[in-house]
Amino acid sequence: AQSVTQPDIHITVSEGASLELRCNYSYGATPYLFWYVQSPGQGLQLLLKYFSGDTLVQGIKGFEAEFKRSQSSFNLRKPSVHWSDAAEYFCAVGAGGTASKLTFGTGTRLQVTL
Amino acid sequence: GAVVSQHPSWVICKSGTSVKIECRSLDFQATTMFWYRQFPKQSLMLMATSNEGSKATYEQGVEKDKFLINHASLTLSTLTVTSAHPEDSSFYICSAGTSNTGELFFGEGSRLTVL
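ok -> structure tokens follow
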């Protein structure tokens, strides 16, 4: 079965600093990978996804992520964080070769200091 | 992008009562919808897969008689928490997928508080 690990429970960065959120997955075949963001009391918003092709994917709000098969990783990055980026970030992997049934990581809470 | 809407956004009920949460795909037809449960400061746990016109598929450990799921049309799935108890208090989130890309779209979530 697939699984997702987000090693960092909580990260604090200063506004304007760069950001990298780590995500490692376990899946036998080529995975469908996602990053979602959740603001308090809200649903999830898709930031970006990887299905195939270019391993560096661009998402919304200036985020990007790189799929590294050799490291089973799909880390999320942003060159300059804004205070509005403070939220919970979830990495997810699609099960069974589809993008539909998702297994989520435990999430990383991002705090941005001014 | 596609929009998925949940109703109600929050609900408070007495222990022993039943609560129904609706999940609607507003601008697309969703052959499959998924129901997740999220405890405070935790991740989303898949509860069940809802298929239009057929019985839902429940994940291991989820009581199908307590969490009734109905997917009567291509745009509506409902989750009914029967005989709710305080331990059922949680944030319930649905998602819906299109058959084309398999991409999922999430609702805003419904917060259930059982007193």
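Chain A has a mean pLDDT of 91.
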